[in-house]
Specification:
With about 120 residues, the protein is α/β, with parallel strands linked by helices. It is built from 3 helices and 7 strands. Strands 1-4-3-2 form a 4-stranded mixed beta sheet. Strands 5-7-6 form a 3-stranded mixed beta sheet, covered by helices on one side. Strand 3 and strand 4 form a beta hairpin.
Length: about 120
């Protein structure tokens, strides 16, 4: 049976930049690892979250699992203070959209690797 934890894998070109970015907007770094000479780390958005992300170097994934290297997930985060989170993300990246109200309060942003993420106000 599946557990109640979900791990989402992200493949990036610069693991150190990604780690600095996610830390700057409040993610918690759970672990760091060196796999076959490549950096990786695990993080989650909140202490009580059961979903976490493992960030791998794109070149590492290309070597060990080339069939998934181009997979890009679409991830929607939720926030109970979308205005504050929008401001925090905007301090770290210029690639952040304005907050839209339709179909619900939302915005999107890109991390240093160019992956886009969406945020929904709750």
């Amino acid at each position: 049976m599946f557990s109640n934890h979900t791990n989402i894998m992200l493949y990036v070109e610069d693991v150190a930049k990604e780690k600095a970015f996610w830390q700057a907007i409040g993610f918690i770094i759970l672990a760091e690892e060196n796999l076959m000479g490549f950096e990786s780390f695990e993080m989650k958005s909140h202490e009580s979250s059961t979903a976490y992300f493992t960030v791998y170097d794109w070149t590492f994934i290309q070597q060990v699992s080339p069939e998934v290297v181009d997979f890009k997930p679409s991830i929607l985060f939720e926030s109970d203070d979308i205005e504050a989170l929008h401001s925090k993300v905007g301090q770290v990246t210029e690639t952040v959209s304005p907050i839209r109200q339709e179909p619900f309060p939302n915005f999107n942003f890109a991390s240093p690797s160019g992956h886009y993420y969406a945020v929904k106000g709750i």
